[in-house]
Amino acid sequence: MRAAPAVALLVLAAGAWGEDAGPRLALGGEASFSYSNEDTGFFNDAAYGHNLLHLARLDLLASLRLATGLTAVADLRSENLDAPRAYALYLRYRPFAARELDLQAGRIPPVFGTFPRRRYAQDNPLVSWPLVWQYLTTLRPDAPPRSPDALLLVRGSGWLVPSAVYGAAAGVPTASAARWDTGVEARYADGPMELAVALTQGTLSDPRLEDTNDGKQASARIAWHPTPGVLLGASAAQGSFLDASVPLPPGRYDQRAFGLDAELAWGRVLVRAEAIYSEWDVPPTGRPPFDGPLAAAGFYVEGRWRFAPGWHVATRWDRLGFGDIRGSRGPEPWEAPVSRIEAGLGFTPRRHILLKAAYQHNARDYGFVRGNDLVAAQAVLWF
Question: What CATH number should be reported for the domain holding residue 117?
């Protein structure tokens, strides 16, 4: 499905950017350009075969008020001159003017966690994304591993996972910030508490436009704002992961995930942290066979300090680990544990322009490339 006709319809039809009192049509956008030395270990690869440190991205945003309380929202995105895709395309309905209740349907904002909802480059103090939301594992929904030994053999090569039956393709991250899922959701806020629930086509690591397995994902997040500048959240999700086109033994093959997040703002300092645990069911194939789900756990902690007008420094520490499976040599992590530390500087020379520079060190326990050091730059323009 191509998104351009749908977005054009929104623009031509003429909603507020969520407010009935505002203009009927609102338009905006963001352009970002990132470059670094060669990422030989593909540590920053994300969806659609793109590396986040070698990326030109254009987002065009539109919001159209169709009726009182009803708004259509679209985000049309192109990366490295690829054909535009609908990153977001949904209807939002606010039935009560006096209550903070939103109902949304379409390609919707994610419920789980926090990072995907601040995905634009101007909201990210560094150039890369957290590992848990970006790093590609060797797990594929369209090609389940044949055996524990076969999975162990390809550790650290998630950007291009080989399969004798299904061909080579990229694996999925623990959780994906590169795509939004399709479905319905409801958000409600009352004082310091906020609750969001959603039912979608894909899963946390594999959001989808169309259903591929006759299953759905249920997800939810609860957040608490005890005081201004403090946010605490907890998330959960479960949904069908493996494609129905793959011959599978009878049973459920789900992804289950749990997350915690926190944010603290104090003066010019902002600190954020997030942790996610996920597990995927796989068929009990191989000798010895898989005897349980594949597990992964990751976290990041990042901080930003605005030390002078227009200037900030930032740093992030990431770690992503994986559970053991039993191969012919005994228990081993099914994927290569990976860690990252990144530090950077940002400068806003004028309104709507942001320049960033960052240093990044990556390390993992397996794979042909065990680590690298990268220096990256990014320019962001929003309008």
Answer: 2.40.160
